[in-house]
Amino acid sequence: MTEVRSARLSFGQERFWFLERLAPGNAVYHLPVALRLRGRLDLDALRRALGAVVAAHESLRTRFVEVAGTAYQVVEDTATIPLRMVGAGSEGELTDLLHEEVRAPFELGGAPLARALLVRLAQDHHVLLVTMHHIVSDAVSLRVFLDGLAAAYGGAAVVTGTGPQYADFAQWQRERLSGPAAEQHLAFWREHLAAAPEVLELPADRVRPAVQSYRGATHRFDLDPGLVRDVEEVGARHGATPYMALLAGFVTLLHRYTGQVDIVVGTPAANRAGTELAGVIGFFVNTLVLRTRLDGDPSFAELLRRVRRTALACYEHAELPFEKLVDELSPARDLSRSPVVQVLFAVHDAASLTVPMPGLLTEPVPLDSAATQFDLVLTIERTGGGPAGVVEYSTDLFDAGTIERMAAHLTTLLAGAVAEPDRPVSQLPIA
Asked: Could you tell me which residues are beta bridge partners of residue 85?
């Protein structure tokens, strides 16, 4: 392969580079997406489509090297996503094959940092799994990848956006955050997180191990569409978006579980300022640190207003990379947990991962994580079948039954908040 250019890593990529060197091949930094394909699959068209997507996106042709102690991303002129094909006789065997593929390690020194597995269940029934390393991709990138794959499979050109590729963003980020913009953002975050607790102590089933193992599991649960609509309507009456309203419910649950009145939760921000980055594959996502105070035992309605103010202010300063914030805060080194935030909350449009492909019926295949960076991650997914909750949790700390009860408590709490939004959050029912 011929090298076409090199660039410094973005701040987020530097963190992954460092973590990969500490624990090579850790599957917690792998980003998979799976599609069930029903109908007559054209293998040649699929291979051409994979090649077209790689050709269009530099991140999928990028490898990582170290020169004189500094890491660089090197973009290759060409690269090929390998397509491995296997058969499965049952859904159970399929699940095992997918899990094994997701856990297989990457070598950051080789491109592409993406691979594809095609599992044949019948002549007209396949599952395609694409796995990328997080250093070259994020959740938005998965949709970009699938859109490009579907377009190329149908013979259309892959749309990559109007301007820069990821290496251009990384260079721009370093230049911008070496000047006054970084200090302006840091000033906000210093004030926002002044004297904030470094740890959210959820009651656990086991003593936290001295070193985080990243072992995890996933619990999925349905959410009543009517309840979610009611929560969103209550939020709207107090100027809160659906995301803010659901976050307020989760913050209330964390408060009730921990007894803490100062709750710090992380949330992913797409961090793709400007439409020129909308169609680019790369690691853009940033973790925002949302701090909500529940002092004075506010009503749920008042909590909504607090969450709204906090979220709006934090998103105005979403440009500062989480990695630079951690450097600024310098939390006590603790190998047993993630720094600054141990719990995340997100709202995700899972239905967007369904892409039309000529001659095929497609649907996303849920993938249960066997690894997690955090103690607990709650994602509210919007799917074609209605809203659902997904809890990713550390199996070092929690049993499956504990997480199932937590999910049930959340739905009960949301119902109580909808029924009596002016009731103090300490008095809302959870069981």
From this structure: 118
Structure tokens at 91: 């859904």
pLDDT at 1: 43
Question: Is there a contact between 111 and 81 (Cβ–Cβ < 8 Å)?
Answer: no
Residue 4: its pLDDT value, please?
Answer: 65
pLDDT at residue 160, as a whole number = 66
C-alpha closest to that of 89 among 123, 119, 121, 118: 121
How far is Cα 13 from Cα 21, in angstroms, rounded to an integer? 12
How many whole angstroms separate alpha carbon 330 and alpha carbon 317?
Answer: 19
Say how far apart CA 40 and CA 208 lie, in whole Å: 50
Mean pLDDT of the chain: 94
Task: Please work out, in degrees rounded to the nearest 5, the angle formed at the alpha carbon of residue 18 by the alpha carbons of 180 and 347.
Answer: 70
State how far Cα 124 lies from the chain centre. Answer: 32
User: Which stretches of 377-430 are DSSP H helices?
Assistant: 400-419
Q: H or E stretch including 52?
A: helix 43-56
Q: Is 29:134 a contact under the CB 8 Å cutoff? A: yes
Query: pTM value?
Result: 0.94
Q: What angle do CA 154, 141, 166 make, to 5 degrees?
A: 110
- What are the strands, taking DSSP E only, across 142-299? 216-222, 262-269, 286-293
CA dist., res. 99 & res. 95, Å (int) = 6
Task: Give the pLDDT band (50/70/90) at residue 372.
Answer: very high
Q: Indicate the angle between helix axes 225-237 and 300-316, nearest 10 degrees.
A: 80
Q: How far apart are CA 367 and CA 385, in angstroms?
A: 17
User: From CA 139, how far away is CA 381, in angstroms rounded?
Assistant: 13
Q: Are 73 and 170 in contact (CB under 8 A)?
A: yes
Query: How far apart are the C-alpha atoms of 50 and 384, rounded to whole Å?
Result: 26
